[in-house]
Amino acid sequence: MLKEFKDFIMTGNVIDFAVAVLLAGAIGLVVNGFVNDIVMPFVGHFAGGLDFADMKIVLDEAVVAADGTVEKAENAIMYGKWVNSIINLIIVGFVLFMIVKAYNKTKKPVEEAPAEPAGPTQEELLAEIRDELKKR
């Protein structure tokens, strides 16, 4: 069983998949940084200084004691973070589209094999049968 597991792990597909997962994680960090640190400030600037990450719907206000300590934390729907995630998804999708498009341009086009000659048509077969019957 251990030998089978070793054979499975050492196949090219598993190693390629592991490398792809690690690279995807790294690319995800880069894209997150790009979206949060570069794109969102521009979007916020053109939206009148709005930061999407701070957008929320407060369900229950926080309860603060007289001495300034929080007795009960705020309960809110943080939809602004979700908007950031959607923008992130769109950018990642676009980047992957561009990568796949560039990769497909580098591939050599597959030449189609010439079509096999089709068998005789129904008319040709009937003509052959007619000619054979005339010979008899």
Helix fraction, binned, reads: 55-70%
Question: How confident overall, as mean pLDDT?
Answer: 82
Oligomeric state: single chain
Uncertain segments: none
Number of domains: 1
E-strand count: 4
Structural class: mainly alpha
Indicate the proportion of strand residues.
5-15%
Order of helices and strands: HHEEEEHH
Radius of gyration: 32 Å
Task: Specify the number of helices.
Answer: 4
- What is the level-2 CATH architecture name? Orthogonal Bundle
Q: Termini, distance in Å?
A: 73 Å
Output the strand order for the largest sheet. Answer: 1-4
**Corresponding CATH superfamily:** Large-conductance mechanosensitive channel, MscL, domain 1
CATH topology heading: Non-ribosomal Peptide Synthetase Peptidyl Carrier Protein, Chain A
Any idea what the shape is? elongated
The largest sheet is: 2 strands, antiparallel
What's the structural blueprint in terms of helices and strands?
Layout lengths: L1 H8 L2 H35 L10 E4 L2 E2 L5 E3 L2 E3 L1 H28 L15 H14 L1
Helix pairs in contact: 2-3
Q: How would you characterize the overall build of this protein?
A:
The chain has 136 residues and is mainly alpha-helical. It has a single domain, classed as Non-ribosomal Peptide Synthetase Peptidyl Carrier Protein, Chain A. Helices cover 62% and strands 9% of the residues. It contains four helices and four strands, in the order ααββββαα. It has helices spanning 2-9, 12-46, 79-106, 122-135; strands at 57-60, 63-64, 70-72, 75-77. The strands form two sheets. A two-stranded antiparallel sheet has the order 1-4. α2 (12-46) crosses α3. The longest helix is centred in the N-terminal third of the chain and has 35 residues, at 12-46. The radius of gyration is 32 Å and the shape is elongated. The mean pLDDT is 82.
